[in-house]
Amino acid sequence: MNYIDLFAGAGGLSEGFIQAGYKPIAHVEVDKAACNTLKTRVAFHYLKSINKSEIYYSYLKGEINRTELYRVIPENILNSVINLPIGTKTNETIFRMISEQLNGEEVDLIIGGPPCQAYSLVGRARSADGMKSDPRNFLYIQYAEFLEKYSPKLFVFENVLGLKSAKEGAYLNLMKTLFFEKGYRMKLYTLAANNFGVLQNRKRVIIIGLRKDLNVDFPDLESIRISQDFKVEHILNDLPPISAGQGTDKYTRYISETNEYLNQTALRNGMDILTQHVARPQSEQDKRIYRIAVQKWNKEKLRLDYNDLPEYLKTHKNRHSFFDRFKVVASDLTCSQTVVAHISRDGHYYIHPDIEQNRSLSVREAARLQSFPDNYYFEGVKEGQNRTAAFKQIGNAVPPLMAQKIADSVRIILD
Asked: Is 35 an active-site residue?
C-alpha cells in the first residue's frame, strides 16, 4: 500500500510506515532543513532498493558531499519531497506535483499531523491569547482537502494531548464533523510511546480515520504492550564519551558491541558508522548546575528543584514555575522524559547522566530516544550546519518504532 505524508517533518511517522512495508508517494513539508533530511532519507531507501547502500554510507563517512549524493538519485525520487506550505494558495501546486508521482495510481493512505504548537498546553500557556488566533489551529481543514482530493482508504493523524482540551474540545469536535463530511468515521487514541518499545515517556493523540464505505473495524492500538526489560542506559553505553561542545557531525565509531535493545529495534542497523554524536557547548555556570543535578539523582534519586540551587547559580527571573527546568536523562530508568523541540534551544532538560561528560545529550542520543535508526541523518539548510536543525526535527517527530507498530496494525484491518 502507498501513502502521502502531510506535514511530514523529518519523517519519523513515514519511516515507521516504510519499515512496515508501505510505499511513500510524496512527503509535503514547509521546513527547508526537514525537507533536506527527507531527501537524504529517500536517497537512502532508493539506494538500498537497488543494492547500492555503499553510496549512502560513503556520504555518512564524508567521502562524498550532499550534492554528490543527490546527483546519483533519480530526479523524480528527490521531487517526491515537496517543500511547500499546505494551504489554499499552494494546494493546487502540491496536487499537481503529487499527481506526477502517482502515475495514475490511487492513494491508499494519508498520514501526518499539523504542527502541534497551537494545541499544546505549553504553547497555549505562553501565548497572549492562548493560541486562539494562531492560524495553525485550522490546518486540519487543509488536511481534509487532501482527503477529499484523494479519497484514501484510511488516514492517520498525529498530534499532542492538548488537542483534546484545546478550546474546550471545540477543535476536536470540528475535526470530527469535517472529516465525517469528507467521508470518514474516526477514532481517537491516546498512546504512550513506551508501550511500543520506545525508551521515552511520550504520550500522543493518534486519530485513525476509515472511509465510510469500508466495512472494517478500527485497529486496537491501545492494547499494544511491547514487553521489555531495557533501560535508558542501553541507548547510551555504546557511544564514545564526549564533553560539552565536543563530538563530530560526521563519521566516528562505537566503543563497544551492540546490545539486545539495539538489536531488537534495529537502531544500530548492523553498520559500524556513527554520525551526529555531537554535543552543544555549555557555559561554566550550566555545567555547575548539571553536576549538581546528576549528583542529586545518583545519590538520592531526586530531581533538582531550581529553587534549591545556590543563589549565585539562579539567573532565571521566573521562580514560580518550571522548577524542573534542569533534568537528568536517568540511565537507570526504563524511559526518559519526553523529547520536545525545545531541545534545539538548550539542553537543560536533557542532561547526560554521566557526570564526567557533564553535558546535555548529543544529537544521536536524542535521536535514539526517539527510536530513529543510527543511519538516519538529520540535515540543516546548509550542509555542515545541522545541530540546531537536527534537534528541532527530532523533538517534533513521531518515534519511528511507534509508527511501525501503528502501520502494522493498520495493515491487518485493511488486508
From this structure: no
